[in-house]
Amino acid sequence: MKWLIVAALVAAGRAEPVQYFKEQFEDGDEWQKRWIESKHKSDYGKFQLSAGKFYGDEEKDKGLQTSQDVRYYAISARFEPFSNEGQTLVIQFTVKHEQNIDCGGGYIKLFPSDLNQEDMHSDSTYYIMFGPDICGSGMKKVHVIFTYKEKNYLINKDIRCKDDEYTHLYTLILCPDNTYEIKIDNQKVESGSLEEDWDMLPPKKIKDPDAKQPDDWDEREQIDDPEDKKPEDWDDSEFIPDPESKKPDDWDDEMDGEWESAMIANSNYKGEWNAKMIDNPNFKGPWIHPELDNPEYIAEVNAYRFHNISVIGLDLWQVKSGTIFDNFLITNDEQFAEEFGNETWGLTMDGEKKMKEKQDEEENKKKEAEEKKTKAIDKVDKDEGKTTEEKNKEWKEEEQKQEDGKEKEHEEVAAEEKTNVEVDEEGTYEEAGEEGAESKLKDEL
Ligand SMILES: *[C@@H]1O[C@H](CO)[C@@H](O)[C@H](O)[C@H]1NC(C)=O
Ligand SMILES: *[C@@H]1O[C@H](CO)[C@@H](O)[C@H](O)[C@H]1NC(C)=O
């Protein structure tokens, strides 16, 4: 298979793929020399090396895992600076939210070479942001943000990300003809052009401000038939005076006001009369506003191009930690990236799923066994006069008390963090204050 690909590459006159950056965390603690934790804040969450609770291969599936709840994370790795001028740029990595994530980022950022890694934070200038972001049920999307002329632009299409507990492969392909493709698990989920799917450039065409719909432009496809007349005997009174109703003998017009007959439904009522519809002989079709070339539009052939790409970083906020990042690849070859995806994520995903299913099954069995036991004891206890239900209740109340204590502690931590984070209506989060990348981003747009 491999020689086939190489042969195809050679036949197509294509060069060997360039690997600008590759990270699989397969050399123990050595990653700590390649990845620099930012010191911009003193309380960034810690990353640890882990394959998680379930995996396809305990060694190969080891990646960077967020390990503390309700924290910001900021870590990055540097590589030789390169420009993607005239080249395809592929960014790929795997994300596993094995903690059943409630709110947190799962994306990467690509930075220029002048980034100070020790001071990397959510306001640091970046080129590209790509990957999944989840917050509540309202926000489950894949971000694709490009910086163009020092402003950040979000993709104007909605791409749903994976929200289960398994490892997923995310790929962004950016081409020198200003087109792109996004894949999840090596399947295309979106593609198009930079110009159409990001609002970096003003629109090519605008509506001619001098053009107006002529007054006599008839947009009605059908009209009432002028020949059609309401028949003489068409009865359109829904109610008529009741013939049985009589003015009482003692009715005093002066005292009681004018007498009115009671009304009853008209049995000859035919409903409202409507003329027959005919095709409008003057119908001209909908009026289309003429467009002009937008004088503000300037074609941009280099929207895709970035110079001195040199750092990949994880700059995140996570409520429930446990996300694992792995199998990072930055290359100029789409096919090579697909193959790399197949050989990493592709090889271990089935095993991972099996292990998880087995764990879930065992968990369920345990639960069932416990339930059975409880029922059995229940019977015995009843004889003793005190039901397990009562005992259970007492026990649960005690447990709840402890939980409440924990929750309160958690809330206090969260409240502190909340000065920096506000959840908006959609369930997306905005970071406020000087840390706010998202809010800053929105301001800029
Ligand atoms: C890339 O970085 C180098 C070294 O920092 C700098 O001299 C050069 O001007 C940069 N190139 C571009 C195109 O920004
Ligand atoms: C990756 O795996 C898929 C599914 O097995 C296969 O269809 C595809 O050809 C593979 N891609 C490469 C580049 O080997």
Automatic annotation (TrEMBL):
<feature type="binding site">
    <location>
        <position position="107"/>
    </location>
    <ligand>
        <name>an alpha-D-glucoside</name>
    </ligand>
</feature>
<feature type="binding site">
    <location>
        <position position="315"/>
    </location>
    <ligand>
        <name>an alpha-D-glucoside</name>
    </ligand>
</feature>
<dbReference type="GO" id="GO:0005509">
    <property type="term" value="F:calcium ion binding"/>
</dbReference>
<keyword id="KW-1015">Disulfide bond</keyword>
<feature type="compositionally biased region" description="Acidic residues">
    <location>
        <begin position="216"/>
        <end position="226"/>
    </location>
</feature>
<dbReference type="InterPro" id="IPR001580">
    <property type="entry name" value="Calret/calnex"/>
</dbReference>
<feature type="binding site">
    <location>
        <position position="60"/>
    </location>
    <ligand>
        <name>Ca(2+)</name>
    </ligand>
</feature>
<keyword id="KW-0732">Signal</keyword>
<keyword id="KW-0106">Calcium</keyword>
<keyword id="KW-0256">Endoplasmic reticulum</keyword>
<dbReference type="GO" id="GO:0006457">
    <property type="term" value="P:protein folding"/>
</dbReference>
<keyword id="KW-0963">Cytoplasm</keyword>
<keyword id="KW-0677">Repeat</keyword>
<feature type="compositionally biased region" description="Acidic residues">
    <location>
        <begin position="422"/>
        <end position="436"/>
    </location>
</feature>
<feature type="signal peptide">
    <location>
        <begin position="1"/>
        <end position="15"/>
    </location>
</feature>
<dbReference type="GO" id="GO:0009986">
    <property type="term" value="C:cell surface"/>
</dbReference>
<feature type="binding site">
    <location>
        <position position="133"/>
    </location>
    <ligand>
        <name>an alpha-D-glucoside</name>
    </ligand>
</feature>
<dbReference type="GO" id="GO:0005789">
    <property type="term" value="C:endoplasmic reticulum membrane"/>
</dbReference>
<dbReference type="GO" id="GO:0005829">
    <property type="term" value="C:cytosol"/>
</dbReference>
<dbReference type="InterPro" id="IPR013320">
    <property type="entry name" value="ConA-like_dom_sf"/>
</dbReference>
<dbReference type="Pfam" id="PF00262">
    <property type="entry name" value="Calreticulin"/>
</dbReference>
<comment type="subunit">
    <text>Monomer.</text>
</comment>
<keyword id="KW-0968">Cytoplasmic vesicle</keyword>
<dbReference type="GO" id="GO:0036503">
    <property type="term" value="P:ERAD pathway"/>
</dbReference>
<keyword id="KW-0479">Metal-binding</keyword>
<dbReference type="InterPro" id="IPR009033">
    <property type="entry name" value="Calreticulin/calnexin_P_dom_sf"/>
</dbReference>
<feature type="binding site">
    <location>
        <position position="126"/>
    </location>
    <ligand>
        <name>an alpha-D-glucoside</name>
    </ligand>
</feature>
<feature type="region of interest" description="Disordered">
    <location>
        <begin position="342"/>
        <end position="445"/>
    </location>
</feature>
<feature type="binding site">
    <location>
        <position position="326"/>
    </location>
    <ligand>
        <name>Ca(2+)</name>
    </ligand>
</feature>
<keyword id="KW-0862">Zinc</keyword>
<feature type="binding site">
    <location>
        <position position="109"/>
    </location>
    <ligand>
        <name>an alpha-D-glucoside</name>
    </ligand>
</feature>
<dbReference type="GO" id="GO:0051082">
    <property type="term" value="F:unfolded protein binding"/>
</dbReference>
<dbReference type="GO" id="GO:0060473">
    <property type="term" value="C:cortical granule"/>
</dbReference>
<keyword id="KW-0964">Secreted</keyword>
<protein>
    <recommendedName>
        <fullName>Calreticulin</fullName>
    </recommendedName>
</protein>
<feature type="binding site">
    <location>
        <position position="24"/>
    </location>
    <ligand>
        <name>Ca(2+)</name>
    </ligand>
</feature>
<dbReference type="InterPro" id="IPR009169">
    <property type="entry name" value="Calreticulin"/>
</dbReference>
<keyword id="KW-0272">Extracellular matrix</keyword>
<feature type="compositionally biased region" description="Basic and acidic residues">
    <location>
        <begin position="350"/>
        <end position="421"/>
    </location>
</feature>
<dbReference type="InterPro" id="IPR018124">
    <property type="entry name" value="Calret/calnex_CS"/>
</dbReference>
<dbReference type="GO" id="GO:0030246">
    <property type="term" value="F:carbohydrate binding"/>
</dbReference>
<comment type="similarity">
    <text>Belongs to the calreticulin family.</text>
</comment>
